[in-house]
Amino acid sequence: xxxxxxxxLQPGRxxxxxxxxxxxxSLDSSCFSSPPVNxxxxxxxxRSIARRRTTVxxxxxxxxxxxxxxxxYSSQLEDRIAENLSSHSLRNYALNISExxxxxxxxxxxxxxxxxxxxxxxYSSKSWKRFLEKAREMTTHLELWREDIRSIEDKxxxxxxxxxxxxxYFYSYIIDLLSGTGxxxxxxxxxxxxxxxxxxFQNFTYDLPLAYLLSTIASLALSLLWIxxxxxxxxxxxxxRSEEHFQSYCNKIFAGWDFCITNRSMADLKHSSLRYExxxxxxxxxxxxxxxxxxxxxxxxxYSLRLFLNCIxxxxxxxxxxxxxxxxxxxxxxxxxxxxxxxxxxxxFILYLPSIVITLANFITPMIFAxxxxxxxxxxxxxxxxxxxxxxxxxxxxxxxLVFTLGSKITSCDDDTCDLCGYNQKLYPCWETQVGQEMxxxxxxDFIIILAVTLFVDFPRKLxxxxxxxxKLIQCWGQQEFAIPDNVLGxxxxxxICWIGAFxxxxxxxxxxxxxxxxxxxxxxxxLYTCRPSPxxxxxxxxxxxxxxVLLIGLCLAIIPLTISISRIPSSKACGPFTNFxxxxxxxxKTVSTFPSSLQSFIHGVTSEAFAVPFFMIIxxxxxxxxxxxxxxxxxxxxxxxxxxxxxRDKCYLIQKLTEAQRDMRN
Length: 667
Prior knowledge:
The chain has 26 helices and 4 strands. By secondary structure, it is an all-alpha fold. It is extended.
């Protein structure tokens, strides 16, 4: 089955010529180190032999005799050519007709100078090989259902059902718009719309498969460089602004006020911010003293409690991941039903079931984490950072669980379809498009939830607090607090979806850009009219570096499933620009093989282990050097601070002595 499928030609795909191995092209491995026949024919000695043979052959035609060449080197060369050609059929060589005729003439000429016994052996060998080829060809025709199976294999992997045209209900257009199916599936929004055919211009051909893959890699690489650049800038600012606690108190008390503030409400907010920062600093100082005064029993108790609470956190995460897995499997198994077999709400619920479960998990788990962190006895600053990290891991890991669940469903099947096509072609004839549809649904559902919460939760809550001031319950509820970390994490979540879905849905970044523009103005309106500022400030320098670090984690998590899908999972044979490749990554080696030999050698050398290991060692040495340099600079900074402290004490001592001297002079 596998052999016939490997030899079968896909309909609508260009046929591939069989690979010609170097050993089949060599004329004499011992003498010429396996040069190709075309290269051998360019040798001056071979050309002289050919000219001499042509001259001799024309003289023999006139005289009726055939003279044997007298040149010893030419005779040896012809002998070796004839020996090589006698062991291999000319059909094994990728040569044109004229070259084959020349080689056949050489072979026939050399045969006339052999003994009768050698001629009989060669003729017998050729006849026996010809007989074996005919017998092998006859046995292939005797194989049961060979042609039928081959036609089934070709057609089964390339079947891509298109939505039927006919009586279409109006709500089906709404479902198609929300889920990316139907008429939207056939547009350039998704992977399946693009073909393997290149765009031909006057002087060159635009290689669409190569451009499709390289554009995805380039966008991810540019995102990585931009995030690293911004993170380094934020890290430098944090390093410069790192200060001792005493200096922090002095800066907040004597230099913390912003004299550009002219509004009363902004002044009150600045007062609240300074009070919160001083309170947080005092609480951290109290925690440091408390940690220093802990006994061994208290330390064991608090660490045991934290271990137990972290086990609860892991259990919550595991339950959420399992719920996402079950919802994804259920949705994939039931979404193939016809629309007319289920009502509008049921179909939409099944399509959006993974997105609904992910959104609920992202909404419930932060509240659970906020309750748990109170019992872990951390400082206020560390509580905020740890809670945010847990929420980040939850948001980003849910997307990865969805993608890996889809990958397991794509590569597993009950019948032998996976052995035939490499993936579950029955459920996923164009699996890249269906993964893109899942990312599209996550993007759309996240956008709908943000709009719905702002319009139907925050705005009515603002009205109730404003116009129902007599109700104590509503006043205790209060206005919605605009939490900067939660909103930034929502942006990171949407950007991670965009990175993962960019390969499967090329226009998804454009949709994400439009979504973020709309969300910006919605959030601005919500901040100004429906929410109150958070009393807990978030420092710009620290928060920028932290959120860029979170964004970098999201990019790394997005690269992992993309790398696996590009390099490991077989590409769809029914759609997309990579139908002629086993995997998406194969377009890169194929393109490299068209480069000049010198450039190929350079690329192979750069990508080999012999280059990678020394390069990695050099990078590690450079990294260790900069780490040591940073440690030395840090020690110098500490020494300079100590010197400044000593100088301030010296000044205080000198001022005290000067004051005492002045007092003595007055007395």
